Amino acid sequence: MDGFKPHSSHWGAFYGRHQGEALEIRPHPADPHPSPILGNLPAIAHSPARIRRPAVRRGWLEARPDNAGKRGSDGYVEVTWPEALDLVANELRRVHGEAGPQAIFGGSYGWSSAGRFHHAQSQIHRFLNVLGGYVRSVNTYSSGAAMVIIPHVLGPYDTLDRKSVTWDAIERSSEMIVAFGGMAVKNTDVHGGGITRHVVRPALSGARARGARFVLVSPLKDDIATDLDADWLPVTPGTDVALMLAIAFVLVSEGRHNREFLDRYTTGYPRFEAYLLGREDGVEKSPQWAAGICGIAADTIVDLARSMANARTLITVSHSLQRADYGEQPVWTGIVLAAMLGQIGLDGGGFSYSLGALGNIGKSQLAVPLPTLKQFHNPVPDFIPVARIADMLLNPGEPFHYNGQALRYPDIRLVYWAGGNPFHHHQDLNRLRQAFKTPETIIVHETAWTSSARHADIVLPATTTLERDDIGAADRDPMMIAMKRLIEPVGEARDDYEIFADIAERLGKRGAFTENRSSHEWLAFLFETTRAALAAGGHPAPDFETFWEMGELQLPVKPDDGGPARAFRADPDANPLPTPSGKIEIFSETIESFGYDDCRGHPRWFEPNPTTRAAESRYPLYLVCNQPRSRLHSQLDYGDFSRSTKIDGREPVRINPADAAERGISDRDIVRLFNARGSCLAAAVISTDVKPGVMQLATGAWFEPDDADAEIAMCLHGNPNILTRDTGTSQLAQASTGQLTKVDVERFVGELPPVRILDGMTFIDK
């Protein structure tokens, strides 16, 4: 292809060619709707934000570990690779000797590469396990509450609920799709491990052309594709559970619920119904009750409930709803509502969690396994829910509850991070800044000078996906890609594998870590897993070198047979769910036994926490902090497409015209969003697509404090996590509540400070 080589990314497969300083990108020809995020890739080759040499924080060099308070404001000294690797190895040796592996936290968030081998999360966990283990994190920021509640109610996460409803089934059979939290098409541009064909748009359009009705329950009108003519119910943020309960109330009071399904396939329904009808607490969860909470008229709720009962209805619940206080409840209530309709397991009906959140959810399952790098066993038992990192660093030894366990936060002396940017995905960044000043040493592998790199002691420059060979493959995507290196490593950047191998050598563990294989030999070794399965199934099974020359390989998929939900519906005795009852747990004796006051035995509406409500009562606006359309999380914020969506170099914040007029704000004004936790600058975009009383500011702008030494800083760039609360969803999941917060906004007055975070780093002499 005229010098173009195959490659892949989280937002799509593509072909690339590097000539001189220019990197040219062509989307994969089979992709009907390539993601515009590919437009960020060319900046990798030349951006000043890239880290080109190892660097060490000056204060740490001079007075470790007593200079931790200067993290985030200190200067950096560039060093040679041998110097940097010696420093890392010596620190690991010291902390192991003084406190053991339980004093090391291995941080990673796994989105750093679409490749199956050069996957930072796998690499760092393998490396630390070879050394004796580490304190780990569980679950994700995106889906932390759902990952805990779903196993109690349906069985293992990502099984029944996300492997039973396909886009093909929706296109051919769904009559009504009720999307709680929406299914924003921009989110389907990405998927961990890659995506070859973006099929969501045509599938939804096909369903609409057939006559399917879409209902969007969200404060944002564009949380669903505009061409679907969806009925928009602009719900008050955080109140979807009240609306769901009122729909359920109508089903029961009018006898529209499926009693046969509830009796055969669920357990605990009578106890939930007693709560629903007010026999438990004296409060009927009626449409009139819900209307005063969620802002949707009672008559509208009644009509919606009747329509759902009279159609082949699919209920979806987005990631966003469970990234808030009591985030377990909307997922659980959505499942119960779908069970009451009795359509779980029907083609195009029932329930699907986070359909539309990622590009490959809703596709058919692969029929063969994918290459996976073994990470070995971690002998350290200590762990934290992923969103509790600041709690851990600030409160070593303090007790906390998680999923029925009484645990204590470990005492962490060294943080080792590779893959991910906690100053993007964590909440209350001023609190995180203080937490990052507590460990003795922080080591990061990074590709660019993000705020995470600027809060580390030792910074090792890692290659990006474009600078290495790998195998691109993802669950539910039927194409394996030979990801061929497109550019030479920028500066002195090295692969994570090479970095860890050299550190392991200094610690006498190189052979254990590498198994004496080069990167290319690892690719061939890992590929064999898939090749052997292809051969056993009678499918074309080329050897690795043939695949590498071909550039891509079509993988077989399983038939679209309704998945685990259809099998359960057909014969619940032969195909029971992996729950204590073998059924859908509307009431969970297990959860009830935990004794939590913020997550009981059945789903319910929880009033806002009184302490939180009092603290935030003076901030009148909800801020929705959702995913950006111009990048994946904070990745490649310095790319051309991401920069093109900014206004005067800052992130856009959408404001309803009424709220803007009340505050004298005009389109493109630079505004200051603020609450008790901090503030940030952003550029106003006046829009009727946001509900009055609501603003929307996407996550992912690299955090840049106005005063790196201040306890409460303002972000100049527009990172909303300077404003969000760092509290868990409940004692059950302890998941992130970063989707929503309360703020106020005003026009910024005075000299506008520049945004420099994307400009790279200026170094000091040794």
UniProtKB/TrEMBL annotation:
Keyword Metal-binding part of the UniProt annotation: yes
Molybdopterin oxidoreductase domain residues: 50-506
Entry protein name: Asp-tRNA(Asn)/Glu-tRNA(Gln) amidotransferase GatCAB subunit C
InterPro entries: Asp_de-COase-like_dom_sf, CT_DMSOR/BSOR/TMAOR, Molybdopterin_N, MoPterin_dinucl-bd_dom, Mopterin_OxRdtase, Mopterin_OxRdtase_prok_CS, Prok_Mopterin_Oxidored
Gene Ontology cellular-component annotations: outer membrane-bounded periplasmic space
Gene Ontology biological-process entries: anaerobic respiration
Residues annotated as domain Molybdopterin oxidoreductase N-terminal: 7-46
EC number of this enzyme: 1.-.-.-
Residue ranges of domain Molybdopterin dinucleotide-binding in the record: 621-735
Top-level taxon in the UniProt lineage: Bacteria
Stored PROSITE patterns: MOLYBDOPTERIN_PROK_2 (PS00490), MOLYBDOPTERIN_PROK_3 (PS00932)
Keywords recorded for this protein, A-Z: Metal-binding, Molybdenum, Oxidoreductase, Periplasm
Cofactor(s) in the UniProt record: Mo-bis(molybdopterin guanine dinucleotide)
Membrane-crossing residue ranges in chain numbering: none
Lineage: Bacteria, Pseudomonadati, Pseudomonadota, Alphaproteobacteria, Hyphomicrobiales
GO MF assignments: electron transfer activity; molybdenum ion binding; molybdopterin cofactor binding; oxidoreductase activity
Family: Belongs to the prokaryotic molybdopterin-containing oxidoreductase family.
Pfam families: Molybdopterin, Molybdopterin_N, Molydop_binding
